[in-house]
Amino acid sequence: MRFYDRQQELSELNKLMGQTKGGSRMAVLTGRRRVGKTLLSLEFVKDRKHLYLFVAKKSEALLCEEYITEIKRLFPDVPVIGEVRFFRDVFGLLLQIARQEPFTVIIDEFQEFYNINPSVYSEIQKLWDLNKAKARLNVICVGSVYSLMHKIFEGSKEPLFNRADRMFMIKPFSIKTMAGILRDYKIKDPAILFDYYLFTGGSPKYIDLLVENNAFTFEKILNFVVDANSPLLDEGKNLLIEEFGKEYGTYFSILELISVGKTGRSEIQSILESDVGGYLDRLERDYAVIEKYKPVNAKPNSKAQKYRITDNFLSFWFRFIYRNRSAVETGNFDYIRDIIRRDYSTYAGWVLEQFYRVLFAETGQYNRIGSYWEKDHQNEIDLVAMNDMKKELLIAEVKMNKARVDLGRLKEKAKALVASYPKYKVQWQSLGLEDVGNLIQD
Fold first, then answer.
1. CA distance to 21, 237, 360, 424, per residue, from 390 (Å)
2. Beta-carbon neighbour count of residue 221 at 10 Å?
3. CA of 134: how far to CAs of 211, 229, 441, in Å?
4. In a domain, 347, yes or no
């Protein structure tokens, strides 16, 4: 699959590169694994002089040996005296070279130095502060462990605090970008676009896997994802265990409950029979795996809130793969596929609501978009979008089967909401998959 999107990030990286005329610059690319951080960094440097250094899980001395080989390949005239065993000497050499000519160095999986030699970060800080103004080095630090990368660069007590000139949180592809990818493969069916959104969450890696395996129907997607040889069966564990550490079991239990619709803190605590407030806070603040949401008109201090998993793939994985891990262990994949087919309509209904909230956000026409409910989850409404400047209020019901939408019932549920905005022009809509094309512009 060719390179897609990321024009804004490439533009900002270009600006930083231009600023190296006045001294070295440092950018940080972070985000969950599989969102295309490495691919983005390599796309940026494809026509530029650059070094790509990967921080593998091995000794510092072996890493340095590998890095020196790469430096000699790119700069054959640079003398390297003696054996280099410490990254501080590698980084110092890069800064010395950059005094003579500008170039870019990508340091991928930058957070791994925590496991190899944590003092690397303070050593980089010292060298950076002493040499930044005199060198023209463009450093791009790429990291996949969200919590560690933010600690390294945003923790006020960390040596690299405030050293990054820009931090980029790389997110999955937008729905519009996914639609463009599918069009390139001659797929224009909105149902397939929705299936890709549900199964991949917009992750470039997962999309690439599906298109390379010609998975352009629901059954082909299902058979690829749920298969003995699928690269996605253990993906949830691969993505999160390193983040969560030894307490991953508790975190996984919470995420499994959220994935099946237990979205309130009291519900989760009742089932797990323990206080999960701290875990929920860390899942949201430190790991960015969940987010809380409130009724669209809720006041900032309102306690009416629910939680959802931010990544669609992880939500699917916890709902169907992790929840049925016994069947995975015994290789009973037919059973898991049958469970997914049985529950798909209900599960997809929840995802379709979020799908439309994202689509409405991508139009740029509204400043507030969300759902609505009243006390004890009464009068729930799938989609509410507001333009407070134009005083416009859109209220919609979202269904996989649009024919089941009852606009009369919707208006009844929305009486209190509409009454709160007496000067707003109200628009009512019923939305199904057939309406997707109206919100996606070519």
1. 45, 46, 16, 8
2. 19
3. 47, 52, 47
4. no
Contact of 370 with 293, CB cutoff 8 Å: yes
**Residue 404, exposed/middle/buried by CB under 10 A (0-12, 13-18, 19+)?**
exposed
- The answer to whether residue 349 is domain-embedded is no
CATH of residue 77: 3.40.50.300
Identify each DSSP E strand in 234-338 by its residue range: 290-293, 306-309
Interstrand relation of 378-387 and 368-374 (parallel, antiparallel or unpaired): antiparallel
Model-level pTM?
A: 0.88
Tell me whether residue 221 is in a domain.
yes
**pLDDT (tens place) for every residue of the chain, 442 residues total:** 788 889 999 999 999 999 988 899 999 999 888 899 999 999 999 999 999 999 999 999 999 999 999 999 999 988 877 788 999 999 999 999 999 999 999 999 999 999 899 999 999 999 999 999 999 999 999 998 777 888 899 888 999 999 999 999 999 999 999 999 999 999 999 999 999 999 999 999 999 999 999 999 999 999 999 999 999 999 999 888 888 888 899 999 999 999 999 998 999 999 999 999 999 999 998 888 999 999 988 887 787 889 999 999 999 999 999 999 999 999 999 999 999 999 999 999 999 999 999 999 988 899 999 999 988 888 999 999 999 999 999 999 999 988 899 999 999 999 999 999 999 999 999 999 888 888 876 5
Q: Do both 289 and 392 map to the same domain?
A: no
How many other β-carbons are positioned within 10 Å of the β-carbon of residue 181? Answer: 22
Cβ–Cβ under 8 Å, residues 339 and 332: no
Domain that holds residue 216: 175-225
